[in-house]
Amino acid sequence: MDQERWSAVDRYVSGLLVPSDPALDEALRASEAAGLPPISVSPNQGKLLQLLARIHGARTVLEIGTLGGYSTIWLARALPADGRLVTLEANPAHAEVARANIARAGLAGIVDLRLGRALETLPILEAEGLGPFDLVFVDADKPSNPDYFAWALRLARRGTVIVVDNVVRGGAVVDPSSADPGVQGVRRLLAMMAAEPRVEVTAIQTVGGKGYDGFALALVTADG
Length: 224
Known about the structure:
Blueprint: H1 3-17, H2 22-33, H3 43-56, E1 60-64, H4 70-76, E2 84-89, H5 92-104, E3 111-115, H6 118-127, E4 135-138, H7 145-154, E5 161-165, H8 181-195, E6 199-208, E7 211-220
Parallel strand pairs: 1-2, 1-4, 2-3, 4-5
Antiparallel strand pairs: 5-7, 6-7
Pfam family, one: Methyltransf_3
GO molecular function, one term: S-adenosylmethionine-dependent methyltransferase activity
Keywords: Methyltransferase, S-adenosyl-L-methionine, Transferase
């Protein structure tokens, strides 16, 4: 098994189960045209996020890391008409593309995009009383993952679902001597999750068009 086969399976599954969607397709095209890195979640992963939000009956979502808004659209579509998704993006160019993509998808009334470093905007959300959120999706700079998880807990309640993307890093997560700050950030995150009594957590390895990686899934089981 190799990347070519993984990608072929992704294309096969997406072709059957995740039909082409004009707003999502255009979000990817616009992101590529603007020079954004091709690191959005795959269509299958986007559909998984949407299903998790729907299964959970989420009404409020916090997303840390917007990029071009592709995953934002998937998640926002899972919410009711009076739902709310707050998404945080540090890069002004990325935020500009994301705003256009979100508006094109007809979701500007549901999505609140905040520009700025997440570790600076998260305290503002807390001060505004915007939590607790029903679901938190973390897909931003990996060295800061432990800090993002700590904030996710502060803005959560019993029953909140927390998803953290890219926690396997092509298998490098098992290397304690890795010089990659992203790998070390993920290792600290997983150790922090394991030691946190307020959550039940697992992590799943994945392969597909985006290569070999995985995600962590946590359920908050007690109030802070």
